[in-house]
Design a protein that fits this description.
With 117 residues, this protein is mainly beta. It has one domain. Helix content is 0%, strand content 39%. Strands 1-2-3-6 form a four-stranded antiparallel beta sheet, with no helix packed on it. Strands 4-5 form a two-stranded antiparallel sheet. The chain is rod-shaped and about 75 Å long. 3% of the residues are buried. The model has no long low-confidence stretch (mean pLDDT 87).
Length: 117
């Protein structure tokens, strides 16, 4: 049996206005809203556990059969991997600013049989 625990702080996100607010004619649009520094907001904390169970059966000599079950994101926790970084050009943010727009995958299971000789 083996478990892998993954914990991580949120990744930095660069807030943008979504417009050419500072008239720089830059592409892609890179104007930040007032009172926001570069990479000031961040995604939520990441917490995930992978789990593996292995049992082998000897067949004499160096031959054996391995039975393996693997679980990725074992507790099926929802982890946001990307948030909406478009603040808008006004003083208050547009609806959806800072909300998750992408997440890590749900629980996955994988089973295998390996015959080693």
């Amino acid at each position: 049996m083996a478990a892998i625990l993954k914990f991580g702080s949120g990744r930095p996100v660069n807030p943008l206005t979504g417009l050419d607010s500072n008239q720089s004619h830059a592409f892609p649009l890179s104007a930040r809203p007032l009172d926001f520094g570069r990479n000031s907001p961040s995604t939520p904390v990441l917490a995930m556990m992978d789990f593996r169970v292995l049992k082998y059966f000897p067949f004499g000599g160096t031959r054996r059969l391995d039975v393996v079950a693997e679980f990725f994101n074992f507790f099926s926790s929802a982890n946001a991997s990307q948030i909406n970084s478009v603040f808008g050009s006004g003083v208050s943010p547009i609806a959806g600013f800072g909300q998750p727009i992408a997440a890590t995958g749900a629980r996955q299971m994988q089973f295998s049989l390996d015959f080693e000789f």
